[in-house]
Amino acid sequence: MQIKWTEEAPRKIQRYAGADYPAENPDLEDVLTSADVDYVAEIFQTPLSGSYNWDYAIQDDRIKKLYDLGKQLNWDPEMDIDWDRPWPAEERAPEMMNLHDYEPYLAMDEKTKDEFWLHMNAWSLSQFLHGEQGALLVASQLCSCAPTLNAKLYAASQTFDEARHVEVFNKYLQQRIGMMYPINTHLKSIIDKILTDERWDMKFIGMQIVIEGLALSAFATARETTPDEVLKDVLYLVTRDEARHVTFGVNYLEEFIKTLTDEEREERAQFAYEACAISRERLVATDVFRHFGWDVEEARKKVLEGFVMSTFRNLLFQRVIPNLARIGLLTEKIRPKFESLGVLDYENLATDGDIDWSVLERPLDTQEAQSYEQTMMAAFAKKHEEEEARVDSAA
Ligand SMILES: [Fe+2]
Ligand SMILES: [Fe+2]
Question: What is the pTM of this model?
Fold first, then answer.
């Protein structure tokens, strides 16, 4: 075992031999074989304030029930997903990304365009993978520092869930796509902040409410848009677990935040806002643009100007905003800041605090993954229509 310590996260794209993706690998000298792989590790320091719990009386409450569900609904990436299904024809989405009239994109030949979309796909899935590793590390910290026994047990079951999520996205990227992108610097900075804060509730707010809330929306969109049945199954199984994690966060924090002083509450509200604001920045695949030699700032602006991206960026907050409202962190002081991000409209949507047990308790059924209702895309289409009607009536 060779461990290579680094000062910061690697910035290079990694490639893996033998993936399902049929195209030849363009720069084969970069392909890793298992003999080349060092364990690349980066140190972070954390002043974690942990706690024992000496009162073993288990309260039979919602948290206990979520823990029990975590045990019952275990799945195995090797057993529950059929990995042998063929790779589908990759879809291009230049309109989605506002690239359909972008000169550097149009100048690519057909083969390079295919490569480009493969890279875009690899980039987003890599961010899912790195985010899952962050969740794994945070969940393990929560075992130590959550103050009640039920929450410690629950955090242990979440830790195992996150381990499977890391496993399944890693396998998908290495086996199916054959390429992995480094972590986006904005995502890395949020995870750093969550891991190194010593207050346990900041970890909960950052991870269970903001990162996992955004992930729920992003996974739903990916599941609706991917042509790959394997990825649909992966996202279905991961999403089921994440729904439990967010529900736990909302239920647990709702009680706790009531016990804080106004000043402490404002501090948490500010922290949640900052995590949301940085998260909006992390959605553009600037590393891919750099790889293809584009002017990164120009391409970034172009993508963000598109109607789809500007709407999608906000749609991602459909889960986070009502949950923040529910736990008491949309304070009067912080509201104008969220208002300027344009996401306060979602404030009164349903929260993940009202538990629909019949949904959470449903047995695993990957058939269901393939016939997924088009919630987010439908919401997007509706907004698009409204926007067009508005433009028409103004004209
Ligand atoms: Fe996860
Ligand atoms: Fe999670």
Answer: 0.89
Q: What is the 3-state secondary structure (H, E, C) of 89-158?
A: CCCCCCCCCCCCCCHHHHCCCHHHHHHHHHHHHHHHHHHHHHHHHHHHHHHHHHHHHCCCHHHHHHHHHH
| 71-80 pLDDT per residue, tens | 998 999 999 9
What range does the domain containing 272 cover? 3-394
Mean pLDDT of 243-267: 92
Helix (H, G, I), strand (E, B) or coil at 287: helix
Cα–Cα distance for residue pair 333/262, rounded to 1 Å: 11
Average pLDDT score over residue span 242-256 = 89
Of 33-37, 364-368, 377-381, which range is least confident?
33-37
SS3 at position 248:
helix
Residue 288 in 3-state DSSP?
helix
- For residue 248, the ligand closest to its alpha carbon is 2
Distance (angstroms) between ligand 2 centre and the Cα of 15 equals: 27
CATH of the domain at 38: 1.10.620.20
Number of folded domains that form the chain: 1
Q: Cβ contacts of residue 85 below 8 Å, gap of 6+?
A: 229, 230
- pLDDT tens for residues 95-113? 888 899 999 999 999 999 9
CA nearest 63: which of 159, 139, 145, 157? 157
Cα(297) to centroid(ligand 1), Å = 31
Give the containing element (helix H, strand E) for 40: strand 39-42
Would you give the DSSP letter of residue 285?
-
Q: Which ligand is nearest to the CA of 163?
A: 1
